[in-house]
Amino acid sequence: MNRLKFLALSVFAIFTLSGCGSMSGGYSLSGAAIQPDWQTIYVATFPNYAPQQNPTLSQDLTIAIQDIFRSRTKLKLNSNENSDLIIEGEISGYEVVPQAIQSNDIAAENKLTIYVKVRYINNKDESKNYERTFSAFYPYNGNEILSNVEPNIVPKIIDDIRDQVFASIAMDW
Q1: Residue 158 is inside which H or E element, if any?
Q2: Can you list the positions of beta strands (E) in 18-105?
Q3: Is the confidence at residue 3, as pLDDT, over 80?
Q4: Percent of the chain with pLDDT over 90
Q5: In this predicted structure, what is the pLDDT of residue 66?
Q6: Residue 80 has pLDDT above 80, yes or no
Q7: Is residue 78 within 8 Å of 67, Cβ to Cβ?
């Protein structure tokens, strides 16, 4: 009897897993809203117009967005605006806000928030075009100096913004 259960479960597992391969057009779930006829993407450099500057933020954000589309979709990264999809924008805010003020008027925690304005142009389906601001934040100890914690928290904020931009385009959110 146990052999029969094992055989039945094995057959069920094979059929279940064989149906999980890929969606139409060969795209995985992470690229669900990207159509098979969309071939190229151009990600322009995101200039940093935030009043408080971080010298590598522009490059780091641009590379992060390029990398996620290159690794999770079949789109080819293009170096010009004649692409099927275009992502451009700018870093518009980089601010520290004190949180959890203690009785001695000193912040127990600060929060770094980065704002990025994104323009998405879909040359294959103009109904998908948008201009939207994305933001992400990360809290840090109020006793720390921003320049000391930036190398640890800025990459986490960039990853969050990158994921939001990807989801808004690839998942049509």
Answers
A1: helix 146-170
A2: 40-43, 76-77, 85-101
A3: no
A4: 65
A5: 97
A6: yes
A7: no
Residue 137 parent element (H or E): strand 130-141
Residue position matching structure tokens 């117009």: 49
* CB contact burial 64-94 (16+ within 10 A = b; e otherwise): bbbebbeebbebeebeeeebbbbbbbbbbeb
Instruction: Kindly list the distances between the CA atom of residue 116 and the CA atoms of 6, 51, 110, 113, 134, in Å, as whole numbers in the listed order.
Output: 53, 13, 20, 10, 5
| Helix axis angle, 57-72 to 146-170, nearest 10° | 30
pLDDT in tens, 144-173: 999 999 999 999 999 999 999 999 999 876
* Whole-model pTM over 0.85: no
Whole-Å CA distances, 153 to 2, 12, 110, 159: 53, 45, 12, 10
Neighbours of 21 (CB within 10 A): 8
